[in-house]
Amino acid sequence: MYSTPTCHYCNLAKDFFNDYNIPFEVYNVQSDLVKRKEMVEKSGQMGVPVIFVDDEMIAGFDEEKLRELLDIPEPEI
Question: What pLDDT does 77 receive?
């Protein structure tokens, strides 16, 4: 996941992954210029988070799409 430390949606994504014990890597594109360039080249996006699940890209925190790609059912209410 490409992110910045102060990004609210990035933190929501990190919490989601941690809640479901899903391992993930975080690239801080605020301080890592190489990863920032890589993110833009791969995604065409300047905003964060940019998340890749296998070859699928998600721009922003899209919980529904993450659940779909990771085969995580919706929580029961």
Answer: 77
Q: How far apart (Å, rounded) are the C-alpha atoms in residues 75 and 72?
A: 9
For residue 39, is it within any domain?
A: yes
- Based on the structure, what is the number of domains in the chain? 1
In a domain, 38, yes or no: yes
Q: Tokens representing 43? A: 């995604």
Residue 14, Cβ density class (10 Å: 0-12 exposed, 13-18 middle, ≥19 buried): middle
> pLDDT digit string (tens) for 22-76?
999 999 999 999 999 999 999 998 999 999 999 999 999 999 999 999 999 988 8
66 domain residue, yes or no = yes
Question: Does a structural domain hold residue 75?
Answer: no
Buried b / exposed e along 39-55 (16+ C-beta atoms within 10 A)? beeebeeeebbbbbeee
- Whether this prediction's pTM lies above 0.85 is answered by yes
